Amino acid sequence: MRRILPITILVIAAVSIVFGQSTNKKASSRGNAQDEEAIKQVVANWDEGWKEFDAQLVTQDYAEDADWTNAFGVERKGRAEIHKFLADGFTRPEMRSRRSTPSTVVI
After folding, report:
1. pLDDT confidence of 87, banded at 50, 70, 90?
2. Is residue 104 one of the residues assigned to a domain?
3. Whole-angstrom Cα distance, residue 41 to residue 35?
4. Does pTM top 0.90 for this prediction?
5. Which of 9, 2, 3 is nearest to 66 (CA)?
6. How far apart are CA 90 and CA 93, in angstroms?
């Protein structure tokens, strides 16, 4: 159950960022190397942020008006609210005692 939350949030973040960045241009069905690197960087930021309990690093790639729901049904609107929720959560002993597992990226 502990792995579901980070994975769910990661998927939502990656999809939000990719769709947000591709609205001004027609998306290629195959993508390109630049897109892949951008996605990998978002995932790397996410992994490092969770490893270090750094809410800024975790949320920096969210859109200002992102809609966010975690695996437990908690909803937040916008990067600032998401950041506050995670920053508050990262101070809790039960959160800090967990270990983060790096994501496997396949694009």
Report:
1. very high
2. no
3. 10
4. no
5. 9
6. 8
Mean pLDDT of the chain: 83
CA-closest candidate to residue 39, choices 71, 16, 68: 16
Domain of 10, in residue numbers? 4-21+31-96
For 11, 32, 86, the CA distances from 107, given in Å and listed in that order, are: 12, 10, 27
Using alpha carbons only, what angle is made at residue 103 by residues 97 and 105, rounded to the nearest 5 degrees?
175
The widest CA-to-CA distance across the chain, in whole angstroms, is: 45
Q: pLDDT digits over 58-73, tens only?
A: 999 999 999 999 989 9
Assigned domain for 101 exists: no
